[in-house]
Amino acid sequence: MKIFSVSAKNILGALAAVATSLLVASSAQAQLRIEISGVGSIQIPVAIAAFADEGLAPQQITAIIKDDLTRSGYFKIIDAGMVINETTPVNFDSWKARGADALVVGSVQKLADGRFDVRYKLLDTVKSSTLSGQSLATAPTATRLTAHKIADDIYEKLLGVRGVFATRIAYVTKSGSQYKLEIADADGEGTQDALRSNEPIISPAWSPDGTKVAYVSFEAKKPVVYVQNLITRARTVVANYKGSNSAPAWSPDGNKLAVSLSRDGLTQIYTVNADGSGLQRLTNTSGIDTEPQFSADGQYIYFLSDRSGGPQIYRMSSSGGDVKRMTFNGGYNISPRISPDGKTLAYISRPDGRSFQLYVMDLASGQNQRLSDTTKDESPSFSPNGKYIMYATESGRRGTLAVVSVDGRVKQKLTIQAGDVREPTWGPFMK
């Protein structure tokens, strides 16, 4: 039997992979720490002034905005060195002389009901005009989210692409004998436990509306696919058949999941309704088919198969059939992920027979590009704007998460102080 992947997502030895790849992580030290390297092909100089009266709020708005924009790799932050609210007249020429193409100003006011009114403006110093402005009524517990939303607005207005600072991520950690599925903001803050278990948890996948996560748990002493509502915490068993139940992936409408099941022998791909009903088999081969992923338009499912003799990535219609092989560069290509615009395929390749590295393929030209300089990569996940990919890797024998821009220029490493972190998945845009 062929072993497809070092990834814990691999159904062939998933329990062993998770058990050996996750080390102890103290809950008190579970905050992700981010290290940034590289910059984007462009860097827009943005001056950010301290918001007037932001000390009234539980979080420092301007600090969060600065951190977000810096982390993106596409902005050069200029510290304004002063407080400027959104109503203060601005001398655009003086800011241009300081090298700023844009200026961010704002204020915080406490409302009678205990909320905060966070106001901000984004000014174009080159054209001496206002690019954007918002007034956001914010609960004290949502101050950080409001700052992320402002950073998203700045990112979109200056780059023409929606920002992802207000999105969330999910990943798996282990502390002693306890596994945890954790949810956090995209910057690693605001960590919450979605599930704790004494058995491995693998393959988390966000629902398209961001309210649920599908995953595989071994708490029944075998891999079973669950869907958990993150609001009510209610769980639904989606697939608990004979043998292995693994690799859940949501359809774009959130009504179905594609899963890999060995109920009828070799592992094949099925679809099932989100409530566990309506099981349908899509592949029927003499090989192993696994790791399905829907395209964003729902027309296709990308998947991993050894039908050609070695693990390669294929595409079929979402109802099965019309199968097309997608990867030919090298003899070992696994873990397909398709970008939100359907133009780019991310995957893990083993080009030298030893290293597992993150690659992307431009589907129009068929050209491949290696994005990572690490050697034990797994579990890639696109950001919802398609501009970044998060994946798991190793550094100093510890599991870490990494983020890289799709052009390979901007790189981040996310670590936990006292343990390993694995199985990342990037959540959708929130409404």
UniProtKB/TrEMBL annotation:
Gene3D superfamilies: TolB, C-terminal domain, TolB, N-terminal domain. GO terms for biological process: cell division; protein import. GO terms for cellular component: periplasmic space. SUPFAM superfamilies: TolB, N-terminal domain, Tricorn protease N-terminal domain. InterPro entries: 6-blade_b-propeller_TolB-like (IPR011042), Tol-Pal_TolB (IPR014167), TolB_N (IPR007195), WD40 (IPR011659). Residues 32-129 form the TolB N-terminal domain. Its main location: periplasm. It comes from the Bacteria. Residues 1-30 form the signal peptide. It is found in: Periplasm. Keywords: Cell cycle, Cell division, Periplasm, Signal. Part of the Tol-Pal system, which plays a role in outer membrane invagination during cell division and is important for maintaining outer membrane integrity. Belongs to the TolB family. The Tol-Pal system is composed of five core proteins: the inner membrane proteins TolA, TolQ and TolR, the periplasmic protein TolB and the outer membrane protein Pal. They form a network linking the inner and outer membranes and the peptidoglycan layer. This is Tol-Pal system protein TolB. The lineage of its organism: Bacteria, Pseudomonadati, Pseudomonadota, Betaproteobacteria, Burkholderiales.
